[in-house]
Amino acid sequence: MASVNFLYRSTKPKAFLNLRLLYRITDEKFPKGYNDFSLGGKTKLEISRQYWEKEHLQIRFKRTNDIDELNRIQELKEKQNSINQELTKIEAHILQSFNSTDPEKISKEWLQKTINDYYNPKKVKEKPDDLISYVEVYIEERKEHVSPATVKKSNVIKQMLVKFQDSLNHPILLKDINLDFKRDFENFMLEKGYAYNTIARAIKFTKTVARHAYSQGLETSRQLDSIKTKTKESEKIFLTLEELEKIKKKSFTKEHLETARDWLIISCFTGQRISDFMRFNKDMIRKKDDKFLLEFTQKKTGKIMTIPLLKQVREILDKRNGEFPKPLPDPKYNEYIKVVCKKAGLKEEVWGSKKIEVAEKQFRKKSDFYEKWKLVTSHIGRRSFATNYYGEVPLSHLKTITGHHTERNFMAYLGKGDEEKAIDALKYFD
Question: Which GO MF term does the entry hold, naming one (predicted)?
């Protein structure tokens, strides 16, 4: 609880009013269980001592028929009203800032800065009402709170929207994001050869941006909540334990393939993203009761992780004198592990999707039967871990290792179909 008082503290006949902030902090660390504080600052409201001490609080006036006196009284009432309005605004500004600030950060310097901010408010830039400009604002505001990969994906969708807008020859306004927009955008993207799930993600992102705009007071369509998207179930490629054994036993004469092979094995037995496992080093390892643990902070989520260091990973470290392999750039790693899997004999044709060049420097995902090695990417390690150990290890433990917050998110990673999951479940009922 806080309150604001105003005082005339100068010996001069005319001066700026002082402000006093009074507040109480309740905490067991204080002898009484609370402590009262008083801080002072100076406003830029200049008035006379005569007015403040004799006239400001005057509410009763003598009855008179004298015109001059009546005019003086009227002027005084107007002055009182004007000054009271200004004091009310200053008080509201101080209390609003106080209520949104950590009490530990409240100080005399903070109070004076807050008073100064009242007289020199930060200019708030008006938000644009067209979609493309607002997407840029949204991405800029969010980039400090999301991963670089998320920012990159958002910019890719922005370029899709730019292409669609160019085809219309007029700007798309935020209030235009309705069912007609959804239909026209879908048709445009399908004609360009984009995959169904890519289109669905773009529409979902656009809807999220429009919702954000609505929260900022901008006009949006009443049909916004009626825009629905569904993604199609895609084939989830993973490496079985038998395939991983083949990969592990395969030897390579080229060092970069040996390195990629070892990282692939590590990823499949730690269940982490490439942004995390490619940063692993021996300093992250600790031993407790003859058990080896790996501690690190997930780059995407900022979550502090402690996971078991499985024997398959320890075997790689043992042959490398306790060191993890040399890190590889993401594009090179994705390129090398395809070669590794091809040489390991993963040539069975499976249903999946991969990017196909449809025009010069234009790629689209196409679903078809491909040799399995062609579908291997860096994310296969996380999916393989989740799939191979599902049904073998309690779900709560698996979620702890992968860092998934919900069962639903974890299950989305599984490469097993319903029939395989049902067979896995039978072991708990025999």
Answer: DNA binding
52 secondary structure, DSSP code: I
172, amino acid identity? I
Nearest one of 269, 277, 289 to 398, comparing CA atoms: 269
Report residue 426's pLDDT band, with 50, 70 and 90 as the boundaries.
very low
Tell me if 131-226 shares its fold with 241-284+310-426. Answer: no
Instruction: Write out the H or E segment, with its range, that includes residue 42.
Output: strand 34-48
Please give the class, per CATH, of domain 131-226.
mainly alpha
Tracing tokens 């990159």 back to the chain, one arrives at 152
**What residue segments make up the domains of the chain, in order of their start?**
2-119, 131-226, 241-284+310-426
Instruction: Copy the structure tokens of residue 268.
Output: 């499949």
185 burial via Cβ count (<10 Å: 0-12, 13-18, 19+): buried
Question: Residue 113's closest CA among 93, 130, 128, 129?
Answer: 93
Cα dihedral across residues 165, 170, 176, 180: positive or negative: negative
Q: What is the mean pLDDT of residues 117-122?
A: 87
DSSP state of 416: -
The residue count of the chain comes to: 430
**Side chain identity at 92, as an amino acid letter?**
A
Distances (CA, A) of 138 to 176, 178, 416: 17, 19, 37
Give me the DSSP letters along 158-200.
Answer: HHHHHHHHHHHTSPPBGGG-SHHHHHHHHHHHHHTT--HHHHH
At the topology level, CATH places domain 241-284+310-426 in: hpI Integrase; Chain A (1.10.443)
Long-range (24+ apart) CB contacts under 8 A made by 284-292 are: 285/309
Give every CB contact of residue 5 below 8 A, 6+ residues apart in sequence: 19, 20, 22
Cα(388)–Cα(247) distance, rounded to whole angstroms?
16
Structure pTM? 0.56
Q: So what's the pLDDT on residue 430? A: 47
Burial class from Cβ neighbours inside 10 Å (0-12, 13-18, 19+) for residue 11 reads: exposed
Q: Cα-atom radius of gyration of the chain, to the nearest Å?
A: 33
- Within 10 angstroms of residue 158's Cβ, the number of other Cβ atoms is 20
